[in-house]
Amino acid sequence: MRCGAAILAMGALLALGAANATEAPKKPIRFGLTATVVRENLELYDHWAMYLGNKVGRPVQFVYRRTSREAMEMLETGEYDFSWINSFSYAKYRESKFFELMAVPVFEGKPLCRSYVIVHINRSFRTIGDLESRVFAFSEPDSNSGYILPRQMLSDLGRNPDGFFRHTFFTYSHIESIEAVAEQVADGAAVDSYVWEYLNRREPRLTAKTKVIQQSETFGFPPLVYRTGVDAELRARMSEALLTMDKNPEGRALLTELALDRFITTPSSLYDNVRLNIDRR
Amino acid sequence: MRFLSSLSLAFKLSVVVSLIVAGVAAAIGGAMIDRDRQRLREGLREKALHLARSVAVIAPEPLIRDDTWTLYKTLREITRGPRYAPEETLVTAMVLDSEGRVLAHLFPALYPIDLPLLPDDSPERPRLQAELGMKDSAVFDGQGFIEGVSPVQASGKNLGLVKVQLSTLELDRKTAEAIVSVLLLSIGIALTGIFLGSIWSIRTLRPLRTLAQSMEELGHGVLHPLPVSRGDEIGQLIASFNRMANELEEKRKLAGELAANEKVIALGRIAAGVAHEVNNPLAGMLNCLSTLRAKSNDPELVSRYLSMIEMGLKKIEALVKDLLIELRVEDAHEVADHSCLEDVRDLIAAEIDPARIEFTWENRLEHRDTINRARVQQILLNLLRNSIQAMPNGGHLWCRFRSNQDELVFEIEDTGHGIPPEDVARIFDPFFTSRPTGTGLGLWIVFRLVQTMDGRIEVNSMPGQGTLFRIHIPREPKLATRPA
């Protein structure tokens, strides 16, 4: 699942300024994103794409899809060469080997995030267990923080997540889940901690109307992956561009905008605790 | 009403005209406001219907997919979009499922998802139930809002219902504002009209007032020709007035000249009468003197002729005396109460033989009845003496005086020989007399004196039975102050 609502695709370019001048046809590199934070800050992603394009020597184009499943399809069929996917999708599809881990964002010092259970600021709910027979907003079915973990919390309470709420719906966006709670369309929602914190820092209009009443354990931050079929040199340049962003003033400015520290490489075991089997009793 | 009728015509005219104009303005304004309101209301109805339909068109897909969030966003974006309904006119909007449960509501905190909009026992529930069964969109007028209702349909089946309520408060506020504007405008028109109209009317009617003033002065004999400075009806009126005044003036001059002529003629007639009356005895006396001179030694003849001359002289004396009396009394102005008439009574009582003539005196004048002493006394004396002379064989003589609101009335009645009808018209002519020794001036003097007091004389006579003179004298002030 993608942790950050603001998951952007980053076009990775190797920082080979001289080399890119000699390439003949500059076919854009398609970099997949699932739209979450994106819609709120398209300009930032344009800047980032430009930055990566310069480093790699080819134009980079971020491509948005509504759901993670669509994004994964695009990666598998070769529509995308790179993609920022969510943690759940990584865990679910990593055995299929059509993509490999390229970089993991570091958020507040760690490549980790959580699921936040939020309610309206004026409501007195204290845990997700208080939301019985209420309206609850999920982000999407393939989301660790926005679907799997809140259901897990209910299971841990000994409750059946199916039928616990009076009504549930998917927003397909962590930001819109926050919006649904802020406007009291939903009594509660589960969102990615990175998205909530990012919004809270940049534009607290929505988050100010919500409060976090419960947090999950940490899990691996949504990773950036490359398609296994992509050109090795291109892959290396993109990886280099991402991993060296914190060494470059422009890259650091972008990271600050994204509320991230830097990109690192980690073993795939980081995602071992992402639960795949949804226990439906 | 009296106050109204005493107001200036200029003011009344302008008030009436201005009020009519203002009334018409208010009526037209009211009609336009009403039409405008109908139009705006119709617009609001269309808007409500349009919004409900717009949501209903998009709603089936998210509704079937159970996509609550998209449904809510659709409802919100369509109904809250600035192009469609500014927030102050939107009351609420919602999407219900076919059971009347809330699928999306603009106020989700008040109307949570997946709960019935209304409890089963709500009095509005039957209406909602009817709306849920509707196959077509409709508009309803509510209290302070207009509601557009549109069913959400797929394959001809009702999946749910969209309700959009728009407030009419803004409409009512605008209408109230327009009414106030029209009222203020009408009042302004009325006040301005009255002000300008009064000024205009006063200027227009000023010549009429001048004309009225001039007419009144004309009645007092003062003539001011007015300047004619305009060609309208008022100008024509002034020109007519000037013509009339000029004609009046000429007529008066003519009358004055005529009167002067008549006076000269009358004087001539008097003079001729006097000459004639004096001439007759004079001729006789001159004859006597001539005879006396020739036969002065005949004592018997001298004696007889001297008495004849004496008689002629006495006649002339009486004539002159009467004329002098007339002149003297005509200029008398002494005013006295009616007790002065008792002198007349005493005088007459001494002149008659009570054995032959019965004299009755009834004085019913009141203390406040004042009279011109010399004139009235002379009138009564002349009439009474005439009556006495008309009864050489005795009879009855009445004097009756009385007064009313306007005048004093003096009646002298006798049982004498009366006046022949052919003579009645001439009895007041000077020198007309039926007696050989009369001067013919007694009744003429009466007539002249009554005239000087603006009075009138009635004569009622039956030959052989008697005569009644009734004299009416108007009351003061004329009696006392008017010069002869």
Short characterization:
By secondary structure, chain A is α/β, with parallel strands linked by helices. Chain A has helices at residues 17-20, 42-56, 68-77, 87-93, 144-156, 174-182, 193-202, 232-243, 249-258, and strands at 29-34, 60-65, 82-84, 99-106, 112-113, 115-120, 135-138, 167-170, 188-192, 210-215, 219-220, 224-227, 262-264. Chain A is globular and about 55 Å long.
Question: Top keywords for this entry?
Answer:
heterodimer; A: 281 residues; alpha/beta; 6-stranded mixed beta sheet; 5-stranded mixed beta sheet; 32% helix; globular; disordered N terminus; B: 484 residues; alpha+beta; 5-stranded antiparallel beta sheet; 13 helices; 12 strands; disordered C terminus
Question: Can you describe this structure?
Answer:
The complex is a heterodimer of chains A (281) and B (484). Helices cover 32% and strands 21% of the residues of chain A. Chain A has 281 residues and is an alpha/beta fold. In chain A, strand 1 (29-34), helix 2 (42-56) and strand 2 form a beta-alpha-beta unit. In chain A, helix 2 (42-56) runs antiparallel to helix 9 (249-258). Chain B is of the alpha+beta class. Chain B contains 13 helices and twelve strands. In chain B, strand 1 (90-97) and strand 2 (102-105) form a beta hairpin. Chain B is rod-shaped, with a radius of gyration of 55 Å. The chains are: A alpha/beta (281), B alpha+beta (484). Chains A and B meet through strand 8 of A and helix 4 of B.
